[in-house]
Write a structure and sequence with these properties.
- With about 290 residues, the chain is of the alpha+beta class.
- It has one domain: 4-Layer Sandwich (Double-stranded beta-helix), CATH 3.60.130.10.
- Helix content is about 20%, strand content about 25%.
- It has six helices and 17 strands.
- The strands form five sheets. Strands 1-2-3-15-7-17-4 form a seven-stranded mixed sheet, with helices on one face.
- The longest helix is centred in the C-terminal third of the chain and has 15 residues.
């Protein structure tokens, strides 16, 4: 197979064509995909893919251990109802209902966030397979936190360098989940941690912001009002148009993104039009 790599935007994302991800991949091909993904600041799009759920898991496993895989940690208990019943590595995003029960988490991710940032070892790659999508609507926005960091003044970079932020799943739980869905065990420490505000990417060595309004509760050592003011500025800065890529989904798309350098927002503008997607999540390293 010979890959064709095309930019999705001037600085963020590539489309990788000329590959069938349902087929076994050799080490050289995986390395080429990984490098193209890293060079594109962490977004790779594969169009027209037709993978079984098992094949999706097999492809994802090339990039690290998966949340929910045998012997690995699961996602938090509250989302367990949205995990595929036969494949615990798969988190289902869907507004479809089967036998009176939701197939997946409806309107998932309708806030700026980086997946699983509230764990000591948060998500590395997330790999989302579009199995059924609306003709119009349901796009996903991605914000490049590396570019956002690099555009800051040197004085602001010096200010941020020693800072740490509290990441807590309870922040999202308070606004994104109904009270009868949230499980108390998920609010008692296992989904709460502290990470540096500026993170050095383990593979590229580039520095970027590692904060997101979906899960960050407060900057360590700051009064709440002080923390809110500084975080509010950084969030507004990070979602300037020049740091964004907006993906319009087509059936068969697979998008792999890097939570170590990106945050994302799913736009819930498609009403009751059927949408069904499956996501695997690679376990990343502890941020430094």
């Amino acid at each position: 197979m010979s890959l064709t790599i095309t930019k999705l935007s001037p600085k963020l994302g590539v489309e990788i064509a000329g590959i069938d991800l349902s087929q076994p991949l050799g080490g050289n091909m995986v390395a080429e995909i990984r490098q193209a993904w890293l060079d594109a600041n962490g977004i790779a799009l594969f169009r027209g893919q037709s993978l079984t759920t098992a094949q999706h898991i097999d492809f994802s496993s090339h990039f690290g251990s998966l949340f929910g895989a045998p012997g690995e940690v699961p996602l938090q208990e509250t989302v367990s109802r949205y995990i595929h019943p036969n494949h615990p590595e798969i988190y289902r995003v869907s507004n479809k209902v089967e036998n009176g029960e939701p197939l997946g988490r409806e309107r998932a991710g309708t806030y700026w966030h980086s997946d699983v940032s509230f764990r000591d070892c948060p998500a590395g790659a997330s790999i989302l397979h579009a199995r059924e999508v609306p003709e119009i609507g349901g796009d996903t926005l991605f914000a490049d936190l590396t570019q956002a960091y690099e555009a800051l003044s040197e004085t602001m970079k010096d200010t941020l360098a020693p800072l740490r932020a509290h990441h807590d799943w309870a922040v999202a739980a308070a606004t994104q989940y109904s009270q009868n869905v949230v499980i108390a065990d998920d609010l008692e420490g296992g989904n709460r941690t502290v990470h540096p505000v500026v993170r050095t990417h383990a593979e590229t060595g580039r520095k970027g912001l590692f904060i997101n309004p979906g899960f960050v509760s407060q900057l360590e050592g700051f009064e709440k009002a002080e923390s809110d003011a500084l975080l509010g500025y950084l969030y507004s800065h990070a979602i300037k148009p020049e740091f964004l890529y907006r993906h319009r989904w087509c059936q068969g798309d697979i998008v792999m993104w890097d939570n170590r350098t990106l945050m994302h927002y799913a736009i819930a503008d498609y009403g009751a039009t059927p949408r069904y997607m499956e996501r695997t999540t690679v376990i990343g390293e502890t941020p430094v």
